[in-house]
Write the structure tokens for this entry.
Amino acid sequence: MGAQGRTDPFRWHVDIDRHLNPLLPASILPRLPHPVAHFLGYRSHPSKAGALGNVAVVFWAAIGVFASLAIIGGVARHIPSFAHRAVPTIVGSFGAAAVLDFYAIESPLAQPRNAVFGQLISAIIGVAVCKLFALSPHFQAIRWIGASLACAAATAVMGLTGTVHPPAGATALMAVLDDDVANLGWFLLAPIMLGCGLMLATALLVNNIQRRFPYYWWSPEEMGTRWKKTEEEHKGKEGAAASTEDMVSERDDRNSSGDLEAPEPQPTVEFTDDQKLFVSKGHVQIPSSMYLTFEEKLVLETLSQRL
């Protein structure tokens, strides 16, 4: 960001992935058994079957939506603590989430990071705002303001953390405006997380029969680069030390036999790739100085799988 960008608030950009991704562990999916990795969204080779027609997409989406909501409702009805607190059988925002998670599965908004953390963030903010506004004796009169604030705050936090999930905005809204949901207080987190987990598990099963889901779990960018760099530097130092020992030994052997001393090795010039964008088969490397939207990153990830 240049000097003008630092002084112009409209040019400020927060990208937590730039700081988090190098620290997070690299994906373990390539090391898992193929059937397991397949249903977790990993593909070692691009599909040769081609894109599905919309009839097949609609068919699997309808199966997934029905199955996920039915499972959530069935499980919720058999949890005593849910019945004791009159937890809604299905939280309303899960209807929109199901459409997104089973129909628009290529969208960054439907990936697990967004679907789970977006709902969690929105539920926390919604409950917090509701409890804050409930302190007022005029709560019912200003409740609509609290609901608007909760939805706005949830959207802002999701945007800054890269976890935008549109149905989660409804969760924040309902946490203040809907009596059945608002009465749960912090217990709302339990049915929200349970529903997210069951819907994700169903999506992994249904969406990976003929399609691929998720396209990524956390980010389409490479993760664990700092650990990988440290490991490569360690191996490089070990290799350099071994090479130096070999050269010293060879030089001593040559001197002892009367041969001329071998010339000193020339220093190796290392070039950095901070300003280069690399796309290879199954790998995308984006320089830290470049900002890409989720959609742009997904396009690069898709292209890398097709090489």
The two ends are 32 Å apart (CA to CA). Residues 220 and 301 are 6 Å apart (CA to CA). The mean pLDDT is 85.
